[in-house]
User: Fold this.
Amino acid sequence: MKTIVIGTNHAGTTAVRTLRRLDPNMEITTYDSNDNISFLGCGIALWVKGEVKDPKGLFYASPEILKAENINVKMKHKWVGINANKKTISVENIDTGEVFEDGYDKLIVATGTWPITPPIPGIDLDGVQICKNYHHAQKIKKANEDKKIKKVAVIGAGYIGVELVDAFVHSGKEVTLVDFADRIMPLYYDSEFTSLVEAEMKKNKVNIKLNQKVLEFKGKDGKLTHVITDGGEIATDYVVFSVGVKPQTELLNGICDLDQRGAIKTNLFAQSSNKDIYAIGDCSSVYDASTKTSHQIALATTAVRTGIVAALNIVKGNTLKSPGFAGANGIEVFGWKLASVGTSEASAKLHDIDYECIMFTDSDRPEFMSTYKDVFIKIVWDKKTRRIIGAQVGGQNNHTEVMYMFALAIQKQLTIDELPLVDIFFLPHFNKPYNFITLPGLEVLGLNYFKK
Ligand SMILES: Cc1cc2nc3c(=O)[nH]c(=O)nc-3n(C[C@H](O)[C@H](O)[C@H](O)COP(=O)(O)OP(=O)(O)OC[C@H]3O[C@@H](n4cnc5c(N)ncnc54)[C@H](O)[C@@H]3O)c2cc1C
Assistant:
């Protein structure tokens, strides 16, 4: 039995290591066009900020580690073609230009995504940078250390952009944030949460330009000088452009079913419409237990878990179904610690989901303790079934880990009525006897004993 895994980052690395542990005899080959594996993108902003001193710590595996596990790792090898009938792929050795064929019994596609770069005039100017891998991280770090670069613009107010804004502000740059949405991180958080961060950004003199579309990057002698939006002109020395990602799946057109965004459709075994091709990580479309639809959830956590699912089901013959995903995510910026999972109120509206929700604020610990802070929580549920479909939490103290429980609640279909019955411990050091999870559940049932 031979399995080829294309792409050896978070999804691919997990898949090959899981395959090896489940089947010591399997022939496993993995190809990646990059020259490194397992780089944690979340560390880019932390490295820029100075929190991470040595970027080597942002890698948790290497080609050498995989080779020691008897995995045939081919770096700087690009997948360039496939013959699904013959079960072969074509691969180009980037250093030599040689193209060769390799055959598989099972193929796992883990080619991830690449940042979207629309054909905006000037996007190729020196000083406009995308942010995806270690090579980009090195350039961004260098630009941050360059004293001549004073004004930085971040285009895209998703979590990657917002983390970089935080890092650049910390480094003393003058920062502008541009997005055509009307608030930051609109996909993950509702306005009750994003407004907390936006207010703090403003206090830190971030020039926030929402509802604005970038029309052009202007430069002098090939070097960026201005960002032109439909709202005006922004003088800038450096831009990080981060407006979204696209699955790298062009070679599978006509071979596997792809969704509208180009992500490879998979079943609960991570198998594509071609039974010998599995797809994992950012390049795949997965079952969302919150909305009961399938779509791409571009997170390292989903990548790792789909890698486990595919490897297990290749070795054990489609026996372990994924419980689905819910897109659990967290962020810490400008002193706010936020996490969310599943459907926000904004996305429930966008997708015409018949929902109800509660927004709840309380002290995180009893007021008799010497310190306590506000904690904000929002819970969204399906109006008809009362199934919890999303939750968001925020505070200046860290309560993000409660989202693990909400992820499980969504995967296991807990209802809002069952929420107050979840066996949550109480200790004044950490929380209140009727805490910020139990109380909103009780309030929905009309049983909040503390509401005046
Ligand atoms: C700045 C940043 C911060 C992030 N922060 C977080 C976070 O805090 N938490 C979180 O969960 N997620 C985070 N993510 C998202 C996370 O990094 C991705 O979800 C994850 O990398 C997906 O892993 P993957 O293996 O599916 O795809 P990728 O990481 O995209 O890897 C795909 C691999 O396939 C290779 N490849 C592609 N095409 C070919 C080809 N034709 N031939 C050979 N090889 C090919 C690529 O070289 C690459 O190594 C962040 C991402 C970025 C960019």
User: Anything to note?
Assistant: The first helix runs from residue 10 to 22. The pocket of flavin-adenine dinucleotide is lined by residues 6-12, 31-34, 41-42, 44, 78-79, 110-113, 131-132, 160, 248, 281-282, 298-301, 303 (CB under 6 Å). The mean pLDDT is 97. The longest strand covers residues 355-363.
